[in-house]
Write a structure and sequence with these properties.
This protein has two domains: 242 residues, Aldolase class I (TIM Barrel, Alpha-Beta Barrel); 64 residues, no CATH class. It is built from 13 helices and 15 strands. The strands form two sheets. It has a 13-stranded mixed sheet.
Length: 373
């Protein structure tokens, strides 16, 4: 596999394009491989795979921030987050096989030595002390980029903790580099060893466009399933990639066909450089609902959510005047299950945009909340 980390290595771009995009890659890292680049139709400047992986000058627009979900607020130590009682998150890698241009953890690649787990024994000790933790999510970066021996060491230590029931691995390797699973046996063997009848390993794949589901990618998913993993897919809604209801429906359907449960569609987080990729919440809700109307019940199990600093909030409905939200997970117990009705704001990209509208909205009751206070 050939990796490219400099924009100058892309022979498909003109010298003028390379010079323009060098300004972007000086700010935000670029990385891909020849397999993933082969999925691009280079004759189409709006090709969705190109949008996903090739830098754009619009990334330099001033918008967003490096930590849009305030993950640092919930960091126990570098690389260990504990936001929800039952779930701990370990950033075990500071490398991805490819860097998505809409990445909400750009800070991991800007400060690669500071933003991932470096003290595994301390993290394991913390998780052992907290018996409420039943789920551990391995993320990064991409855990499947680690040497198999290193990944197995992490999983083995977690499996030795009795109260940790589920290990989740968030990865885009089945889309970026399925050969790492198909051509090598190490990763499926790890899954087979540690995904037991009583304690499953979940692989959270990251397919975002139907063209990523190549025959090789589908084979990689199948090998992980045969090894005993349960597969669920999560993705953001991205402008120019999957914001067409027909394209999104095709993706949801194909995921259901191969047994990769459509799990979450995320509102694209307002990370630094992400403005060009984002879609207003209410428009996004309509796109998701139109797509769900085209697929079976198995494909429409997906939830449209935003990972806000206060919790994972599901966008569950809208009328002409209001948009309805519910806390799917909450950082504070008082918000658990909380239901919100906010005055419609078609220009809102994040929950915080609604709070600003509410203060000035010219009706008597622009905000209503139901649930624990």
């Amino acid at each position: 596999m050939k990796y490219l980390t400099k924009i100058e290595q892309l022979e498909q771009l003109s010298q003028a394009e390379k010079s323009e995009l060098k300004q972007v890659t000086d700010e935000f890292a670029f990385r891909s491989n020849d397999y993933y680049l082969s999925l691009i139709d280079w004759n189409d400047p709006n090709d969705p795979i190109r949008t996903l992986i090739i830098p754009s000058p619009q990334e330099l627009d001033e918008w967003g921030r490096l930590d849009p979900s305030d993950e640092k607020t919930y960091c126990v130590m570098p690389g260990l987050e504990h936001k929800y009682p039952s779930t701990a998150l370990l950033l075990v890698s500071n490398v991805c096989d490819g860097i998505c241009r809409y990445c909400f953890r750009k800070r991991v690649f800007i400060n690669p030595q500071n933003e991932y787990l470096r003290d595994l024994p301390a993290a394991i000790k913390y998780i052992k002390r907290h018996s409420e933790i039943t789920n551990v999510l391995l993320t990064g970066g991409d855990p499947f980029v680690l040497k198999p021996s290193k990944l197995e060491n992490i999983i083995r230590k977690l499996r030795d903790i009795e109260h940790v029931q589920i290990i989740r691995i968030g990865t885009k390797i089945p889309a970026f580099n399925p050969s790492r699973i198909v051509g090598e046996t190490a990763l499926p063997e790890i899954i087979k060893k540690y995904s037991t009848k009583q304690k499953k390993i979940y692989i959270m794949t990251h397919f975002i466009h139907p063209r990523e589901l190549t025959n090789l990618a589908v084979k990689a998913v199948g090998l992980l399933q045969q090894a005993g993993a349960l597969i669920a897919n999560q993705m953001p809604l991205i402008r120019g990639v999957n914001d067409n209801p027909n394209v999104l429906a095709e993706l949801l359907a194909k995921l259901s066909f191969i047994g990769a449960v459509p799990y979450y569609i995320f509102q694209c987080r307002p990370a630094l450089g992400n403005k060009a990729f984002t879609i207003p919440i209410e428009q996004g809700y309509e796109i998701v609902e139109q797509a769900k109307a085209l697929v079976s019940g198995l494909a429409k199990r997906v939830r449209f959510v935003m990972s806000h600093s206060t919790g994972k909030i599901e966008i569950i409905g809208r009328t002409q005047d209001y948009v309805y939200f519910k806390y799917h997970r909450a950082a504070e117990d008082a918000d658990s299950g909380r239901f919100l009705a906010l005055a419609s704001n078609p220009a809102a990209y994040w929950l915080d945009d609604y709070t600003e509208v509410i203060r000035d909205y010219p009706i008597d009751l622009p905000y209503r909340s139901y649930g624990p206070e």
